[in-house]
Amino acid sequence: MLNLDPWTVLWTGINLVVLYLLMRHFLFKPVTAMMEQRTKAIEDGLSQAEAAKQAAQALDQENEARLAQVRGQADQIVAQAKLQGQREYDQIISSAQADAQAIRADAQAQMEAERRQMLQDAQQQVAALALLAAAKVSGRAMDQAGDRDLVEDFLREAGDL
């Protein structure tokens, strides 16, 4: 059977307690402290990663807002350019139409003046022929201004009919 000596049991117990205290002081405390530091470093890294993620999301939202604003400004600039182009086009067309109408009016006035001149020339030629015919019929020369006026009045009345 086993022989248990009380002194051996007592010294073994004391050795175990001293061994436990030494291990606790030199092994357990540094390992626990190292594990707490590691846990804290991991938690800090996770919180920094979360903060960086939130900052990136905020920056992304800000960039999207800026992009939308820039697109809106670009659309507005394009719309203004189209409107300005349409105004200039309308102004050019209006100016061209006014110029064309002025040219037509000038041409019409010139044609009317030429027509009047031609009619006047024709009347003078007809008057001269009438005087010449009257002179031949009457056998005398018709040079006097009164005779000319009489023939021109006759032609004018005949032209109004």
TrEMBL record:
Chain segments annotated as coiled-coil in the UniProt record: none
Subunit structure: F-type ATPases have 2 components, F(1) - the catalytic core - and F(0) - the membrane proton channel. F(1) has five subunits: alpha(3), beta(3), gamma(1), delta(1), epsilon(1). F(0) has three main subunits: a(1), b(2) and c(10-14). The alpha and beta chains form an alternating ring which encloses part of the gamma chain. F(1) is attached to F(0) by a central stalk formed by the gamma and epsilon chains, while a peripheral stalk is formed by the delta and b chains.
Alphabetically ordered keywords of this record: ATP synthesis, Cell membrane, CF(0), Hydrogen ion transport, Ion transport, Membrane, Transmembrane, Transmembrane helix, Transport
Transmembrane regions: 6-28
NCBIfam families noted in UniProt: ATP_synt_b (TIGR01144)
Organism: Candidatus Intestinimonas merdavium
Protein name stated in the entry: ATP synthase subunit b
Compartment(s): Cell membrane; Endomembrane system
Encoding gene (name): atpF
